[in-house]
UniProtKB/TrEMBL annotation:
Species in which this protein is naturally found: Linum trigynum
InterPro entries tied to this protein: START-like_dom_sf
The protein, known as: Uncharacterized protein
Lineage: Eukaryota, Viridiplantae, Streptophyta, Embryophyta, Tracheophyta
Top-rank lineage group of the source organism: Eukaryota
C-alpha cells in the first residue's frame, strides 16, 4: 500500500509531545481547536489499544474531512509510538480511501530526555489504499497535519 511520511521538528521535549499525542483525546481540542472540535471516546478508555475515538474536525480540516472514527491499534510507551486505524464508517475511509492507518512516533532531538532536553522529532506516516472516487488532496492534508503539530508545539511551549 502507498504511504506518505513526514518528520516534524518540535521545540517541546519528547516527553511533553508524547504526553500530548498519547492524551490526544483530551489535549487536541484544547491545543488545536481549529483542527479538532471534539474527540469522543466510544470504546474502551481512549488511551489503550482497542479504544475507539469519534473525531469531529475543526474548520482547518473540515473543508477536507468533517469526521473520522479511529481505533488505537497499538501503543508503545518505551518507543513513544502510537498506531491508529481509520474505520469504515467515517469520511476518510469510504470517501477517500478503501483503508487508511497512521503511525505517530516521537523521538528526542538531543541526548537525554530530562528537563534539559532540547526539542523532539515527530515522524508521522499515513498508509492507505486509494479509492479512485476520492478527491482528497494528500499534500493539503499533509500541510494541515504540519500546521496542527506546529500549533500543538506552541501550545506545549506556553503551557
Amino acid at each position: 500500500m502507498p504511504s506518505i511520511s513526514r518528520s516534524f521538528r518540535m521545540a517541546s521535549s519528547a516527553n511533553d509531545v508524547w504526553g500530548a499525542i498519547f492524551g490526544a483525546t483530551y489535549v487536541y481540542p484544547l491545543a488545536m481547536p481549529a483542527h479538532y472540535d471534539a474527540i469522543l471516546v466510544t470504546g474502551r478508555d481512549g488511551l489503550t489499544a482497542g479504544s475507539i475515538r469519534q473525531i469531529t474536525y475543526g474548520y482547518e480540516i473540515a473543508g477536507m474531512v468533517r469526521r473520522a472514527t479511529e481505533e488505537i491499534t497499538g501503543v508503545d510507551h518505551e518507543n513513544r509510538t502510537i498506531d491508529l486505524g481509520f474505520r469504515n464508517d467515517d469520511d476518510i475511509v469510504g470517501t477517500f480511501f478503501r483503508s487508511a492507518s497512521m503511525v505517530v512516533k516521537v523521538d528526542p532531538n538531543s541526548v537525554g530526555d530530562g528537563p534539559n532536553s532540547r526539542g523532539s522529532n515527530i515522524t508521522w506516516t499515513l498508509t492507505y489504499a486509494s479509492d479512485s472516487n476520492g478527491s482528497l488532496n494528500l499534500k493539503k492534508f499533509e500541510n494541515a497535519t504540519a500546521r496542527g503539530f506546529e500549533t500543538l508545539d506552541a501550545y506545549l511551549m506556553n503551557a
